[in-house]
Every structure is written in structure tokens, then in C-alpha cells.
Design brief:
Number of strands: 4
Radius of gyration: 24 Å
Helix content: 55-70%
Oligomer: single chain
Strand content: under 5%
Distance between the termini: 59 Å
Order of helices and strands: HEHHEHEEHHHHHHHHHHHH
Largest sheet: 2 strands, parallel
Length: 429
């Protein structure tokens, strides 16, 4: 009897899962018309964010939660980009579906709502003289009728975009990178714009170089470990691809964050102090603890935090891999295993400090971090590139200075026949 109940429950769960996440061949191709459906999941999320900043909405938020999750997952995993070079967008949709679901869960389970530091209820400060919630998130002037009308939208977007919780109760204790820009509004916007352009150029150049690697740079993907190459050249190439991939991700994080920062400060009147750097020079880390807790981004801090270090990294690995499932290329355990591996590595650092009296740091600490991230992390990049990460259309060629000017200039200057030295180096395989 219990076995029958188990199989019936398993069948029900599988049917519900497949109702939200169909098989790749059952998904709906995205066209010019139904592409507008991709905006629909944002509406219930914005409403949930609005409710999270209103008192006595706990029951309503709990009732709304299943709808928000079902709409996000059901939409982004049902509609599919079918062109091979657009497959990377399916990955992005998977990440967005998970992020919306996690946000909705975070908004729903807090009975009091999302509170800023110093508040007892949303918009109700414990100290009536302190209405600015730690001075981090200053609300725009509502004397303007247009701004007053959109105050509800500001409330919703403010809490949705506050991933690190700066100025909020859930962000107490988070590491905030040192601000190197002027906090004067115009100077801050100009410096952020310069950062955006610089990271755009870095992202474009690295992504364009990865596309020069045979197989790896195609939409169908290929391994970064070329068995035809001698040992040294094989792993020199895989290391270069892995470092370029990581640097590309860093640049992408920063440029996307810079864009949101500009929009928030310029259009929503948000304070520059609410938008410190998203990264804190991760390449300068001299221990894994410093890397993950301070120098890496803290955007998904609330999503991955389950109270235990193992749960945090396992949650991170599942977040990345479940999103990659939207590519239609199966589930690869390598990704969650890499993130889960970080927990015992951190315990090794703790054991080192316990038995030696010295924390991991300095030059040897930095080499340790590079070994854990650059060497042990290569199977992670390989998993993504085998499924077409490097061949995805992240930037249209017409918007790529590297493909329009830089790489053609190298081709012309290095070889009059038009053969690029990078293609020559990896083309021999």
C-alpha cells in the first residue's frame, strides 16, 4: 500500500513539474508576438513587492505566492528560443524564473513585511525622528504630483532591487565594498557611466575571443579540454578559456549593475549611497572565506542562505544548474558539485587556522584561492561551454566593437592573408 501511495504521489509531483516545465520538444517557440508574454511574470512580482511594503498583508502575500511562482516558472520554462545562437536566452529566462520565485518566497514568509532598519512596520519608524532608515535609501520627493502618483511603484522596485539589503533589516551585517566614486549625484552618474562603458568593452572583447575557439565558440558547444593537444597546451588553453569566462561574468555583473544603478538614481531618484560597488576586487582575495563572504557579489545572499554553509553552496549550485536546464541539454551534476565543494574547502581553511594559529592569507593564500577557483573550477566552465555558453548571441555583432574593429584590425596587422593569430593557435587542433 505504501509503495502504491509513493508511486501515486511521485506521479502527481512529476505531472505538476511537467505542467510548469515541459520537455524541450513540447515548449512553445518564441515569436515576435508571444515574446510579450515574457513580461507578464513581472506584474505579480511587482505587486508582491508593493504588498511587502504595506502593513497587515501577510495573509494576502501567502495566498499570492503560489501564483507568482507558477507564473514565473511556467512562463520562462515554457516559452523557448529555438534558434541555436539564441539558446543562451533560455538560460537567462531560467535564472530570472528562479530569482522571481526566490524573491516572492522572501516577501511572503516575513509576517511583518520587508522592513528597513529602524522600522516597526513598513513606513513606520520606531523613532519618529528617524524616518530615513539608516540613511541608505532616501525616498524621492513626493511633493511633485507625478512622483507622488508613482510612489507605489518606487516602493515595489526599491525592495525588489535591494538584493543585498543595504539599509534593510535583512541586510544587517552584510559586507559593503568601499565606495570609490563621489556621492554627488552628477559625478556619481558620470563615474558609473564610465564604469559601464569600460565593463562593456571588457565583456565584449572576452566574449568575442572565446567565440574564436573551435567548438567552444559555437552554439552547439564543445569541451574546453582538447584531447588532441599535448598536455601543457591542452590545459593552458582550458585555463585561458576558464579565466576569460570568469572575467566575462565579472564584467557582465558589473555592467548590468551599473545600468540598474543609473536608472535607479537618474529616473527613480534613489540615493547614490544606496548603490555601492557590486564586487570588491575578487581577484585580490587571499582566502576562500574572504572571496565568498566579501569580495564576490552578495546579490543572491538571501536566496542561498539556509543557515548552514553547506546549504548555502548547494543552493547556489542548484540555482545555477536548474537555470541551465532551460537550455534543453539535460542536468549536469558537475555544477552543483563544484559549489558544494566550496564548503569542505572552507572547512580546510578553518582547520588550518585552528591547528596553526594563522589564518589563510598573504601570497600563499592568494595562490590557494586561484587553485580552488581557476584549477578546480575548470569543469564548471567546461559544463557550460559544452552546452553552448560560448556560442550564444550575448551581444549583436553590430554592437560589438571587438568584432567590428579590434579583431579585424589584429587580423589585418598580423597577417596580410586575413588569418588571425588566435585562430591559427587553436585552429591547428
Amino acid at each position: 500500500m505504501w509503495l502504491r501511495i509513493y508511486f501515486e504521489c511521485r506521479c502527481i509531483v512529476l505531472n505538476v513539474f511537467r505542467a510548469l516545465v515541459p520537455e524541450p520538444h513540447e515548449r512553445i517557440p518564441i515569436t515576435g508576438i508571444n515574446a510579450l508574454y515574457l513580461l507578464f511574470p513581472l506584474s505579480p512580482l511587482i505587486y508582491m513587492g508593493y504588498l511587502a511594503r504595506r502593513p497587515y498583508t501577510f495573509t494576502l502575500r501567502l495566498l499570492l505566492l503560489p501564483l507568482v511562482v507558477a507564473v514565473a516558472v511556467g512562463t520562462y520554462f515554457r516559452f523557448m528560443w529555438t534558434e541555436p545562437h539564441h539558446n543562451i536566452y533560455n538560460w537567462g529566462q531560467g535564472l530570472l524564473a528562479e530569482a522571481i520565485s526566490a524573491k516572492a518566497i522572501d516577501f511572503a514568509w516575513r509576517e511583518e513585511g520587508m522592513l528597513k532598519i529602524g522600522e516597526v512596520h513598513p513606513h513606520v519608524a520606531r523613532n519618529p525622528d528617524n524616518l530615513k532608515a539608516n540613511g541608505m535609501h532616501e525616498k524621492p520627493d513626493t511633493s511633485n504630483s507625478a512622483t507622488s502618483t508613482l510612489a507605489w511603484l518606487y516602493d515595489a522596485l526599491e525592495v525588489i532591487l535591494s538584493n543585498r539589503g543595504l539599509g534593510w533589516k535583512f541586510g544587517i551585517g552584510i559586507h559593503v565594498p568601499r565606495e570609490e566614486r563621489s556621492l554627488e549625484r552628477n559625478s556619481f552618474l558620470f563615474a558609473t557611466l564610465i564604469s559601464f562603458v569600460g565593463n562593456y568593452m571588457i565583456f565584449d572583447l572576452l566574449e568575442s575571443l572565446i567565440k574564436l575557439v573551435p567548438d567552444v565558440g559555437t552554439p552547439h558547444g564543445g569541451t574546453i579540454f582538447k584531447a588532441e593537444l599535448p598536455f601543457f597546451y591542452r590545459y593552458a588553453l582550458s585555463t585561458a578559456i576558464h579565466v576569460a569566462t570568469g572575467s566575462c561574468i565579472l564584467a557582465g555583473f558589473t555592467l548590468f549593475y551599473d545600468l540598474i544603478t543609473i536608472l535607479a538614481v537618474l529616473l527613480l531618484g534613489s540615493s547614490p549611497s544606496a548603490w555601492p560597488p557590486v564586487l570588491d576586487h575578487p581577484w585580490q582575495s587571499d582566502s576562500l572565506h574572504i572571496f565568498w563572504s566579501k569580495r564576490w557579489h552578495q546579490i543572491f545572499r538571501e536566496i542561498f542562505f539556509f543557515g548552514m554553509v553547506f546549504g548555502t553552496f548547494i543552493g547556489s549550485g542548484l540555482y545555477h544548474e536548474c537555470a541551465a536546464y532551460a537550455l534543453g541539454r539535460g542536468f549536469d551534476t558537475i555544477v552543483p558539485l563544484f559549489f558544494a565543494l566550496q564548503a569542505p574547502l572552507l572547512l580546510c581553511e578553518k582547520a588550518w587556522r585552528k591547528y596553526t594559529g594563522y589564518r589563510v592569507g598573504g601570497l600563499y593564500g592568494r595562490l590557494w584561492v586561484y587553485f580552488c577557483i581557476i584549477i578546480l573550477g575548470q569543469p564548471l566552465s567546461n559544463s557550460w561551454h559544452r552546452r553552448g555558453l560560448g556560442g550564444g548571441l550575448m551581444l549583436p555583432p553590430s554592437l560589438s566593437p571587438a568584432r567590428q574593429f579590434i579583431i579585424p584590425s589584429f587580423r589585418h596587422s598580423l597577417n596580410a592573408t586575413g588569418t588571425d593569430i588566435l585562430e591559427f593557435m587553436v585552429g591547428s587542433i
